[in-house]
Amino acid sequence: MSLVTCELPSMGDAVDVAELRRLLPDVEVVTTPGPHRDKRRAQALSLFSQRSWQWGRFAMPAYTRALRAVVEQRSARLVHFDDLGVALSGPVPGTIGVFAPHNVEHRIMQGSAATDAGVRAAFAAVEWRKIRREEQAAWRRMSLCLAVSDVDAGVMRDAGASRVELCPNGVDPVDQLDFPSRSDGQPLRLLFVGTVSYRPYERGIAWFVREVLPRLRERVPVELDVVGSPPLKPVSAAGVRYHGRVPALQPWYERAHAVLVPVFEGSGTRLKMIEAMAYGRPVVSTPLGSEGLPVRADEHFLEVTTAEQFSDALETLAHDMASRDGGLGEMLERAREAIRPLYWPNIVSGLVDLYRLELDREASRS
To answer: How many CA atoms lie within 13 Å of 240's alpha carbon, on the beta-carbon side?
Structure first.
């Protein structure tokens, strides 16, 4: 198996190539130089191009040549494209092209156009339309598209994708933690896990700190830990700590009484919600946070829309933990059982079976 990727040393979330090779000892890792690093200049120039800035900059001849060389050397029969940037170089003639995006990307940029202001909003308004064209073209070109949810699958089919199958996002199996008990007077410890530099999450956390925390603090002492790449402009408040990337997440889930998913825009599915349920932590989420997941409001998590509802739900949880209410324990068990199919071993097994079937079908046509 081979992985063809771009080197992106200027991007803080990019995995070092040496680390990638260490993590994938049985995979040939082939790299090409990444796109131009001068972000503002590249964004300005993209206004004169049919390509989007976010993904179109990855349509590089060097990457396409490297990919096709690996396919030829390996006599590869199936190529898996894991995001829109690399999918712009596909499909490779003579192979089964599979496009497996983790989001409908233009929906995310469309949200930025609606919530940002000034130049940023104007740029996003142009950008999301370019991304939509690129996505739709990629969905139509590929032999098979993999969607992480029924919602995304519907968007792909409506845009003309020839074939779409479900392949959800998932998490590693973990041991369930003890019940998140809390004594009266103890701070309610809240947790958010995610790449907070990602604009929809940055805006969601900023909204929570500004709108929900003051209401909740009038009723219950509270602390909030935000774990993940930090936001560009963090909103400060008493008891709110931004920890950045951490070596392990389990200690943070052990510390937490509840997990927040204040998401109002975006696409795909929220892994933080699955992971919290796997560890046995209650989740309070906006409706979009559970989109595409096999969970239901009130049965597996608490769904809220407004700041007042968020505050009420967390206050209720605080009291339930102090009294060790049996209903909360039952909800945590139901949630953990509901997301069991989303453990990576189960997902990978299904994907391997799907790819074997595709290869067998292709061979039978030859």
So the answer is: 16
265-284 pLDDT, tens digit each: 877 778 889 999 999 999 99
Q: Nearest to residue 261, comparing CAs of 235, 237, 287?
A: 287
CA 331 to CA 327: how far, in whole Å? Answer: 6
Sign of the C-alpha dihedral computed for residues 201, 47, 139 and 34 taken in this order:
negative
DSSP E strand stretches across 281-335: 283-285, 302-303
CB atoms within 10 A of CB 241: 11
Compute CA distances 129 → 66, 136, 157, 314, 320, whole Å: 29, 11, 18, 38, 47
Torsion over CA: 284, 288, 290, 294 (sign)? positive
Q: What is the pLDDT of residues 93-134, one digit of tens each?
A: 999 999 999 999 999 899 888 888 899 899 999 999 999 999
Gap between the Cα atoms of 332 and 45, Å rounded: 50
CB atoms within 10 A of CB 348: 12
pTM of the model: 0.85
Helix ranges (H only) for 208-323 are: 213-217, 250-255, 271-279, 307-323
Per-residue pLDDT tens over the stretch 196-227: 888 889 999 999 999 999 999 999 999 999 99
Give dist(CA 237, CA 287) in Å, integer: 26
- Asked if 232 contacts 202 with a C-beta cutoff of 8 angstroms, the reply is yes
